[in-house]
Amino acid sequence: MASLRDAVKWLLFEIGAGYYTRKLATGPEAELRREFADFLAPPTGSRVLDVGCGPGHLARWLARRGCRVTGVDRGRRLVRIAQRLAAREGLSIEFKHAPAERLPFADAGFDLALATTVIYWVEEPRTVLLEMVRVTRPGGSVATLDPHASMSVPSIRDYCEGKGLSRQDTGKLVTWARAAGHNRRFTEDELRRLLAAAGLAELALERRMGGLVWFARGVVPPGPKVAA
What we know:
- This protein is α/β, with parallel strands linked by helices.
- The protein has one domain: Rossmann fold.
- It is 46% helix and 21% strand.
- It has helices spanning 2-15, 17-25, 28-40, 57-64, 76-88, 125-134, 153-163, 167-182, 188-197, and strands spanning 47-51, 68-73, 94-97, 110-116, 136-147, 201-208, 213-219.
- It has a seven-stranded mixed sheet with strand order 3-2-1-4-5-7-6, sandwiched between helices.
- Helix 6 (125-134) links the parallel strand 4 and strand 5 (136-147).
- Helix 3 packs across helix 4 (57-64) and helix 7 packs antiparallel against helix 8 (167-182).
């Protein structure tokens, strides 16, 4: 059943690649990702891996800030879109087609590995986090952006009304809330346990977007990695 769910999920992204690209290009989700980049604040020249990069909006944002960015996504159409958009801006970003559960990179090759709205969605979140830890150097960071347990369609609508968001932007966030309801939303304890189980230390968790979203990061400690 898990493998069937996984296949259906990624088929939806393959079919809806164009819609997803437009959805994340502007509005509250685009602003949230820029806020996430500020939360991480990678130094210029950092080797950054964007896992589940989608159309590469955040990857391009980080490249403009002077990071050396690699993006990986399971969706072939999304990778092609990301390559096209980066080329249009003259940005040097490597995009690869691969599943987050099997990253095609050597150990300890990145200073920062990040995943935005990926961990809540995948069928094997611990496997993905272990892979992110594996490809990040000791002392480097692994970071995630995912829904808080309080995210729901009513709470999203209340947030949007309070912010005076447009009908279009409200619709984008409602779509996300519905997806979260069918997948995962994290309490603080749940998210901390998951990140710690992947071997991360010095965890920092912050609630954003009216408390409905988690920004989280942890440090890859020196020594042996956690076994899968």
